[in-house]
Design goal:
By secondary structure, the protein is an alpha+beta fold. Helices cover 37% and strands 29% of the residues. The protein has seven helices and 13 strands. It binds zinc ion.
Amino acid sequence: MPENKVTKAVVCPMCGELSKAEIYTSVNPTIQKGIRGRVLDGELFSWICPSCNHSARLTYPILYNDMKNRFMVYLIPKFDRFQLCDKELEQKYSNLRNINKRVVPTFNLFKEKIFIFESGLDDMSVELTKLAISQTVSKKLDGEKITEGYLSMYDRESNTMGFTYFIGEECEPYVQTARLEIYGKSKDIVDEFALKDKKLKGFIKIDREWAENILYRYKRAKHIEKLNKLKE
Ligand SMILES: [Zn+2]
């Protein structure tokens, strides 16, 4: 068995039977033909009980290592810290430089990161753009709460990007497109206020919470600038 696969014991949630499942600890789409599609459509995580045919989705940590596009996304279910400190992993990939390394807690965020990096976008700027546009959408919908949002479209030719947000208790999907200028502006803010995070070596979590923090720092700096101008 290749080193990136392990056998795990699985107890069927339906019949309680104990069986085995082969799971990937890491995948490499540059080397493994066809694995990208199997990851993105969730097939890689599907499991069928050999005794009762019950099908389920297994959730377990998996590292997606796209060497060609120079990014790694580590899906660790329910991961709730900002940074993953894994010495063994760091040493294994220590010779690789300028690689975007991210950790995500859910399958949807996992897929979104892959889409962002494959599109050649900067995920920090995307996250900031997503936050800014979600505030516009919320205002448009009389302050409706936005539970989550994902980059769902990117078209360089028409100069647009699109986000799908999930609104209110019902989690109704809502698509909002934006011009790339907003992304450009976000990029400027990231360059000025997120330099420290850009230099971090480990796997980090770049999400809405992170974007809120950057936006807060940006607004505070603007505010201080304004106050200083008034004093002059
Ligand atoms: Zn079963």
